[in-house]
Design brief:
The chain is mainly α. Helix content is about 80%, strand content about 0%. The protein contains 15 helices and no strands.
């Protein structure tokens, strides 16, 4: 049996809640049977209110796109990408269902970044297939995430797929250029230069030309121009070879990074065109030990 004070308190509370005009003190003027019934009613009402309040509290903790996004973002900021990415994907699903465009946009952007970070880790671990899958996933969330595009190019390069890698690397270089990220552009051009050089030195002249020409669409580059000159000369296009060799010399001079091999390429193109005087003049500009003996020999041959 409930105590009298508690009974009065509960009665007062529920009478007010239910807007019933009954004096709770009159409970004690009722017979025992009636009091028991009323007591049971109060207990039932009390339990009902407790359940309702519990449900309301639970409702306040309802999972939403925003709540999941915030939880995922906290994990990503802590660099826990393994746990953060799945939650961010859940936030994307919820935001899509809720038609919450703001959260959807933010979640996709951050999911793309998380995919790149996980992909980069896989790349460093030489798990190239897994890295590629993550870069592709990231690109699916945000097609303008240049890091994922560059990552795909890097993976393809490692896998020996030079022509496929070129397209992604050139695309990323152009995007970096638009963003004013000069160092990123330079690094990407170095990668493209090494690919062009490797194709040339392994006598894959057509491949070298395809890589090099696409690379020059990003911007001028002395070394790539040099390799292209040598390739075009091997292919019999003497005029194009001279044009590119002269461009390599021009860029190298302007950047104060002239290399003797640029003069060698220029001289060979001149000689192939029958311009002996120009060829000799180009060979005479060679001063470094690596190419000096070759240049002097060719000068002697041209002077006959």
């Amino acid at each position: 049996m409930l105590s009298a004070p508690f009974l009065v308190f509960c009665a007062s509370f529920f009478m007010k809640s239910l807007k019933l005009k009954i004096d709770p003190m009159k409970l004690f003027t009722l017979n025992v049977s009636t009091t028991k019934v009323f007591t049971s009613l109060i207990v039932a009402l009390f339990l009902s209110f407790t359940v309702v309040h519990a449900q309301e509290a639970e409702g306040e903790k309802k999972i939403t796109a925003t709540s999941v996004y915030n939880e995922a973002l906290a994990l990503l900021k802590a660099k826990d990408f393994e746990a953060g990415l799945p939650l961010m994907k859940q936030a994307i699903e919820l935001a899509t269902t809720e038609e919450n465009e703001k959260v959807l946009k933010l979640a996709k952007k951050n999911a793309s970044k998380a995919s790149y970070s996980l992909g980069k880790a896989k790349y460093k671990a030489k798990a190239y297939d897994e890295a590629m899958a993550l870069y592709k996933e990231g690109l699916g969330y945000d097609s303008l995430n240049v890091s994922n595009i560059a990552g795909m190019g890097a993976v393809l390069k490692k896998q020996g797929k030079a022509l496929e890698a070129t397209d992604y690397l050139v695309q990323s270089a152009m995007m970096y250029k638009e963003k004013g990220k000069t160092q990123r552009v330079d690094n990407t051009m170095k990668s493209l230069n090494s690919m062009t050089g490797k194709a040339y030195t392994t006598d894959k002249f057509d491949e070298a030309i395809m890589i090099g020409e696409k690379a020059l669409a990003v911007g001028e580059h002395a070394s790539i121009s040099y390799y292209l000159s040598r390739c075009y000369l091997e292919k019999g296009d003497k005029e194009k070879a001279l044009e590119l060799a002269s461009k390599a010399v021009e860029i190298g001079t302007k950047e104060e990074k002239i290399e003797d091999k640029y003069y060698i390429a220029q001289a060979k193109a001149y000689a192939a065109l029958g311009k002996k005087a120009e060829a000799i003049a180009a060979y005479e500009k060679v001063t470094g030990e690596k190419y000096l003996e070759q240049a002097q020999y060719q000068i002697g041959q041209l002077k006959g």
